Structures are given as C-alpha cells and as structure tokens.
From TrEMBL:
Record protein name field: Inositol monophosphatase family
Organism: Nautilia profundicola (strain ATCC BAA-1463 / DSM 18972 / AmH)
Length: 229
C-alpha cells in the first residue's frame, strides 16, 4: 500500500472513531506541541502511528519524536482544529507529511482531501465527487483573526472580506481557491509542513510570526502591503 493510501485509510478510521468512541473530548494533559491534548487527539495519533510507522520516523504534535529506525521523517498533526471538533464546528482535519515526498491533508468533517506526491497534486473527497466550480478567489482566509484586531481593521478599511475557520493546515490547502491566506501567531512545523508541500507552487511570505500565502503574486503583494500599513 502506498503512503498516501495508508494515510487516507487511517483518516477513515479516525472519522469512524469520532462517531463511535466515547469520551473523545476528555482532556489528557499537554502534548509535545504545547497545546492541550484531547482524547480524540491521542486516538487519532495512535491510528496514524500504527498505519505509518513502516514508512518513516514520526514527529507528532502529541507524542513528539518516535524513532522507527528509518531514514525518512513523517510530520503529523493528528487533529487540526481540536477546538472546533470539541465545539461541534465542522471544520477540522488531519495533516501528514512524508518529508520531501508526499503530503496528505484531510477534512475529517466532510471528507475533502488534498494529496501530493511525485505524481502531482489532487483535491478529492472520500465519500463523493468534489464540487466542480470556477471559484471566485476573492475572499481571504485569516487564521487567528481574533488575536489580530489591527489587521482585521486594515482589511475592513480596504473592503476585503475574510473568514477565520480555525484549522491552519486545512486553510492553507483550501487557500488555493482563495484570494490569500493570512496567519499571524506562533508558527509550528506540525501545522504547516503538509500544506506548504501541497501548495508549493503558490506564493508564500514568511516572517517570525506571520504566514501569507496566495495563488497569485499580485494578491500576495496587495495583502502584504495592507498588513504593513
């Protein structure tokens, strides 16, 4: 089984666990990445470790580094958007990156998935055909907007619409259909590795606490200039 197929199969098991496991929102302390860990985070991580250990060493947000005696590294965020899933907000997923080879990001709430490997990239759905549409590319996805009211005001002053859905790796993947993605806050490898690989052909701007991504260079430059006002 390929790495991508193994990851998608594991994602389906996590979706099943979300519907069948009990006490999935019970807090289990602080994970390696510094965030609170819910039971569903640990359940998802366990599923991924079992499914992917043959493909590489694992660096996961909850457990940290797991040495499987391999030459390759897999970076995993088992549940991207834990706060959303624990509040019944349907925007959460998982993010898995096999270093320099493949990326898989799955929206566990609706089945959308983003994959990329040596054969190219693909947007699809686990359960149905994805929407076939010419997307407008005129909205900004702004993660952590609630912590950055100054940028919110600047976007408003320029009449730019934005949404703040609350799962960074998903947003950086869906960003290929948006005007731009803004994130201002602590930058962690778990949150961005898979999405950055998936959308590597997009235009990116990084600072210590800022990520800006856009499919179009002119849009990235426009939004960056507004942020810097």
């Amino acid at each position: 089984m390929s790495f991508i197929d193994a990851t998608l199969c594991a994602s389906l098991k996590i979706i099943r666990a979300l519907h069948e496991e009990e006490n999935i929102f019970e807090e289990k302390g602080i994970g390696f990445g510094g965030d609170r860990s819910l039971n569903i985070d640990l359940i998802a991580e366990k599923i991924f470790i079992k499914a992917l250990s043959d493909y590489g060493n694992i660096l996961s947000e909850e457990a940290g580094f797991i040495d499987n005696g391999k030459d390759k590294k897999i970076i995993i965020d088992p549940i991207d958007g834990s706060y959303n899933v624990s509040n019944h907000i349907p925007y959460f997923g998982c993010s898995v990156y096999l270093e320099n080879e493949a990326a898989v990001v799955v929206n566990l709430s609706n089945g959308d998935y983003f994959v990329k490997d040596k054969n190219g990239k693909k947007f699809d759905n686990l359960f149905r055909k994805p929407f076939a549409a010419n997307y407008r590319h005129d909205v900004i996805i702004f993660e952590k907007a609630y912590k950055n009211p100054d940028i919110v005001q600047k976007l408003s002053n320029h009449g730019l619409k934005f949404r703040a859905p609350g799962a960074l790796s998903l947003s950086l993947c869906y960003g290929e259909f948006a005007k731009a993605v803004i994130y201002k806050g602590e930058i962690r490898e778990f949150d961005i590795a898979a999405a950055q690989f998936y959308n590597s052909e997009c235009h990116w701007h990084f600072e210590d606490d800022l990520i800006l991504m856009s499919p179009e260079k002119k849009d990235l430059e426009e939004v960056l200039s507004i942020i810097k006002e």
